[in-house]
Amino acid sequence: MRRDLDQYLCAKYPKIFVDRHADMRVTAMCWGFSCGDGWFGIIDRLCGNLQEISDRTECQAVAVQVKEKFGGLRFYIRSGDTEHLNAITEAENASYLTCEECGEPGRLREERSWLRTLCDRCDAIDLVERQVFSRKDADPARLMTIGPGAEALVVAALIARRPRSRS
After folding, report:
1. What backbone phi and psi angles, to 5 degrees, belong to 109?
2. 148 contacts 110 by C-beta, under 8 angstroms
3. Which side of the chain, N or C, has fewer Cβ within a 10 Å radius?
4. Mean of pLDDT values over 31-52
5. Which residues pair with 162 in a beta bridge?
6. Where exactly are the structural domains of the chain?
7. How many other β-carbons are positioned within 10 Å of the β-carbon of residue 123?
8. All residues at 6 or more sequence positions from 5 whose CB lies less than 8 Å from its CB, including other chains
9. Share of the chain above pLDDT 70, in %
10. What is the model's pTM?
11. Helix (H, G, I), strand (E, B) or coil at 77
């Protein structure tokens, strides 16, 4: 996730992200948010719900790790009760319907070795990046095997060169 989004969440929910910059022997939050920007809205809503529950129950949820795993959001906390866990489950379920990169409606992509939840556009860009940009022996002619519009996707990917959303 982009640094500005990370900072926004930590400033808005300081009790939840109290350990954001703590030592790695204490929390995995030292690594930041290990997911794409597209899930920012889900995480923001989840944190609002978690803080409301924490204030009402006097049981403060503290984030231990926030990441993508098997194509879905994982939000691990220290403390909390069943109500906290239900809110987290709801957010994790929503992540399987939301593109991790852009936040548009998406679906779990299981066609490749790495499971990801992406919209059609981000899936096509991901495919281009995997087939061309990550290979040392990249051959632009291979793009024609992707199908119609491949040239436009390559141009868009080259212009944007969408940075990976990891902190």
Report:
1. -100, 115
2. no
3. C
4. 97
5. none
6. 3-95, 107-160
7. 19
8. 33, 37, 40
9. 78
10. 0.81
11. strand
